[in-house]
Amino acid sequence: MTQNEQVPAAIAEEADAGRLEWIDPLTDFRPDEPEESRVIVDPFNHRKKREDGEEDTTEPDPGLIASVDAVGVQQAPVLRPQVGEYESKLGIVMGQRRMKAARAAAEKAVAEGRQYRKVRVIVRDDLKGVNDEALAGSMVENVHRAAASVQDDLEAAQQLALMVNAKRVPKARKTQLAAAIGRTTEELDAAPRVAVIAPEVIEELWEEGAEFDWVEQADYAEVQDVPNALWKLEQAKRKDAAEGNAKRGAWRQAMQALKTEKEKAERIAATTAELAKKMIPVIGWPYNWHFSTARPLEELESSIGRPLTEAGHNETCEGHAATFDPADGEVVWVCGDFKKHGHRIIGAAQNQDGPSEEADAEREAARAEARRVKANNAAWRSVREVRQAFIADMCQDKGEAPADVKDLVLATILTGRYTYTHYVTADYGRLLSTFLKDANLKHAPADVVAKLVKRTGARRYWWLLYAHVAGMYEFEHMTDEAWRGKKDEFGRRKPIERETVEWLSFLKKHGYSLAEIEEETLATAQRQAEEEAERKAERERRERERQEAARVKREAEEEDARQVEDAQEDEGRETDTEPAEDDGAEAADGQEGDGE
After folding, report:
1. What are the protein's UniProt keywords (predicted)?
2. What Å distances lie between residue 442 and 232, 357, 534, CA to CA?
3. How far is CA 292 from CA 86, 289, 356, 360, 365, in A?
4. Which of 133, 190, 279, 330 shows the smallest number of beta carbons within 10 Å?
């Protein structure tokens, strides 16, 4: 621009830019007491509180309040002097929700003994009495404020992820940043995962009305292809909300189950592709083999009674095929039409194509039980990761351990309820490393443990002991068979261990959300305990009856003995008195003779 050029009038600084002023959100702004308030909502503010039953768009959401509490009001509200009844007051033309959020944040700060921020506002003296322009300005702010698009959110997440990771933001600063944007630190940590989500995934969540935060959006994107994934996650979120579980316990269990399903589906897809290359057909899993022409090879034999193997059957039979067990996704080799190809079911008579209906029903029941065991084994192994992650989070507590944690530690150690040598040598290092989140403890050398103890404050000693005891419970009492009870030395299935029930109940008390298989385990243990109590009561009843019968018999025998004894005594008395009677008679006779 040359010296001769002048600034166009259209971009000249205007006189109606307003003046800055600081407002105290507690003393100056009292929405419920307009007569006592210095600042009121302008009568021509476009956003008004509606009648009862209609949505109140003037109230700030929790995210806005958290943001104002963290960094203050960043966009100055616009106020104007009032006329008439409220001549001495300022009216909010733009920024009513921001002012209310500032007041809510101030009230929270005062309750917590903290200082709060004043609000910087722009006072437009030129709008005093100019109602049409004030209303137009309020409408412009609200009507033309477009909601952020999906891409806006994703790009913001990506930028935040880059900034946070690059600067290695301290925890306190990260908390402040998260609050400023209405997010949690957990969501801020999830920003890198959110940044790579396909926009259509977010659009699907919006269309379905799923109110997921960044962590939940990223999780859903990971398992979206699993059938009913969205419904299961929504159910888990509702359960967490109903139970007040801030650690997303039910959500984590649902995610782990969905990941397991996804891994199984991927494994089946990969195996199916390999079978296709080998020209081996894949059939659907018959949920009732009795009505199917196919049978697993393990249940078949040749026409001369020889067992069928996968390799031999593949070479000699055109009916060779595969299916996948829905319980664990493993391949089951079958003959697609065993009757057509001259096979027979093991145990069938020579003149029968298959066993009797009764035998077939028993075989189907055995298959169903085998599927149940497979499914529960897989579920039990799957939830172990979530449970041990919860234990690891417990062990990171910086404060004093609760009394029941100390009780558990002392009771376990003092009663010696674990095989110390076997536990330490076999799995001690891995579990201790997991729970204390220290990779150096993986092999648990003595010097590493000594250094750990030395750098641990006295207040956290109990958590070290708890990690040790937790490892014992996980190693000895949460094995693959713990959900149905271990076998004894004779191969008989024992009831679910008392320690398994104790451990799950203890974790549940401390906020752990039990998975379905764990709930089922506790229910089974409860049922077993009730059945054992009934059996004990029955044994005690029979013992009482036996003792009562023995008492009655003993009393009867004693009564018989007394009667015999009494009879003998009576007989003895009769024997002793008979001679005396004879002598008396003779004496009487003599007296009579003498008299005569």
Report:
1. Coiled coil
2. 35, 55, 46
3. 86, 5, 15, 12, 16
4. 279
> Can you read off the two tokens belonging to residue 594?
């003498």
Nearest Cα neighbor of 380 from 328, 303, 305 is 328
Q: Do the Cβ atoms of 396 and 437 come closer than 8 Å?
A: yes
Distance CA 424, CA 433 (A): 13
| Residue 459 dihedral angles phi and psi, to the nearest 5° | -65, -25
Lowest mean pLDDT among 115-119, 155-159, 349-353: 349-353
Q: Is 83 in a helix, a strand, or coil? A: coil
Cβ neighbours of residue 540 closer than 8 Å, sequence gap 6 or more: none
DSSP state for residue 416 in the 8-state scheme:
T
Nearest alpha-carbon partner for 517 in 494, 493, 541, 483: 483
8-state DSSP, 495: P
Q: What is the rounded CA–CA span in Å between residue 342 and residue 188?
A: 65
Rounded to whole angstroms, the Cα distance separating 120 from 124 reads 13
Per-residue pLDDT tens over the stretch 274-304 = 999 999 999 999 888 888 899 999 989 988 8
Q: How far is CA 476 from each of CA 270, 388, 420, 498, 507, rounded to the nearest angstrom?
A: 35, 14, 10, 12, 16
Q: Which of 171-180, 392-401, 572-581, 585-594 has the lowest mean pLDDT?
A: 585-594
Distance CA 134, CA 141 (A): 11
CB 128 within 8 A of CB 80: yes
| Tokens 């290695």, residue located | 168
* Closest by CA position to 279, among listed 315, 329, 241, 232: 315
For 349-384, the pLDDT digits (tens) are 554 555 566 777 788 888 888 888 988 998 999 999
**Six token digits for residue 196:** 């790579």
Tokens standing for 417? 């309820």
**What long-range pairs does 276-282 form, CB within 8 A, spacing at least 24?**
280/314, 280/320, 280/321, 280/322, 281/321, 281/322, 281/336, 282/321, 282/322, 282/323, 282/324
Virtual torsion, Cα 21, 26, 30, 31, nearest 10 deg: 90
Contact 517, 376 (CB under 8 A): yes
Answer yes or no: pTM beyond 0.85: no
How deeply is 111 buried, as exposed, middle or buried, from its count of CB atoms within 10 A (0-12, 13-18, 19+)? Answer: exposed
Between 392 and 180, the more confident residue is 392
Tokens 């009667």, located at residue: 563
Residue 205: per-residue pLDDT:
84
Residue with tokens 């008299």: 595
Nearest to 386 by CA among 236, 224, 202: 236
Average of per-residue pLDDT values in the chain: 82
Nearest 5°: CA angle at 540, between 534 and 542? Answer: 105
Dihedral, 433, 434, 436, 441 alpha carbons, nearest 10: 0
Does the pLDDT at position 566 exceed 70?
yes
User: 352 has which bridge partners?
Assistant: none
- Arithmetic mean of pLDDT, 71-94: 89
